Prior knowledge:
By secondary structure, this protein is mainly beta. Helix content is 4%, strand content 43%. It has one domain: Jelly Rolls (Sandwich).
Amino acid sequence: MKILHSVHPDDFKTYGTDKIRERFLLSDLKQNGQANFVYTHYDRMVAGLIKPDGKTISLETDNALKSEYFLERREIGIINVGGEGKINADGKSYTLNKLDCLYIGKGVKQVDFSGAKADASPIFFILSNPAHASYPTMLMKHDDSLKAVLGSQTTANQRTLCKYIHKDGIKSCQLVMGLTLLHEGSVWNTMPPHTHERRMEVYFYFDVPEGHMVFHYMGHPQETRHLVMGNHQAVVSPPWSIHSGSGTANYGFIWGMAGENMEFTDMDAAGITELR
């Protein structure tokens, strides 16, 4: 499991493009028929991707975790962005269609991932963080998620935000997770941007059309940097950094947070005219 260490914001100011990509971009998660995970020192969040591609893949522990099994001291959130998939958690089976979410709590020992159709593999994006209590495994279908339409066409940021794991949804210890779908003709997400010193965040971009890219902006609001990202790539956002993006076409992205609290609105806004 690759390990990402924390970066001080003063050090970040000296980074060039290659160093920013090395320290924050998770670019090679998707590989057919295997699981790939990255362990971050931002609130001990683990991010990963599993594409079964006709196989059954088990969630295995890693030397970085120093645990008997992956969820011995952790919880996990999973959102499928591919074809129909199956997840078996300690003998109970769950079916996830595209954009469905499954939460699995601390203490579940055996977790297996597979697909339902050979020609349409599921693509499971996964976030996991330390847990102090055991909450029950719960599946939430996309249609049942709490939704809000934000932005407008006139500012090219009309989008539907869908909450799955949050204070008033699926219960967890500290994981908050959902996704946002940009409407046709809109390209901006999370604008105006914000930071939140009490939580870190991960963005995973999906449904980015072939031949298109997303410009992801990060850094202090008064001194921003950017990463150019493709489909099925993720980026780690430190508490001191904004996290906002604009694509060359509309797309979707999964967002997940861990840290001090579960208040979705706990953020420090940065005005558009403050950005530099």
